[in-house]
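Budget justification aside, the reviewers requested a transparent look at the raw inputs and outputs of the sequence design task funded under Objective 1. We therefore reproduce one unedited record. The lines immediately below are the structure tokens for a 99-residue chain.
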């Protein structure tokens, strides 16, 4: 019996990055009406992530990490802008000020 499999190879490459670097990862699941978007800002020394969730109610998770080990967001599909990041940051500030 023969089956078809998909294999992926991981390789290292050098890329040119300008800091701060902004990214966005949309994890929205429309089947379950869950909205979750991660906005991030990477600098040479830290990474700030804003996780914006909307389900039954709105929720934010704001994290600052000093060690930037996750390099997956440097793919072109995640590239974002300062404006998108700052918009999410402002929404999070407003959310936390209401609490």
């Amino acid at each position: 019996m023969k089956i078809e499999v998909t294999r992926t190879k991981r390789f290292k490459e050098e890329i040119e990055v300008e800091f701060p670097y902004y990214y966005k990862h949309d994890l929205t699941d429309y089947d379950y009406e869950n909205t979750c978007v991660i906005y991030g800002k990477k600098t040479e020394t830290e990474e700030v992530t804003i996780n914006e969730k909307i389900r039954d109610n709105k929720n934010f998770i704001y994290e600052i990490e000093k060690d930037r080990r996750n390099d997956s967001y440097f793919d072109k599909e995640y590239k974002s802008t300062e404006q998108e990041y700052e918009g999410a940051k402002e929404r999070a500030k407003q959310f936390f000020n209401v609490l």
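The radius of gyration is 17 Å. The mean pLDDT is 87. Computational costs for records of this kind are itemized in the attached budget.
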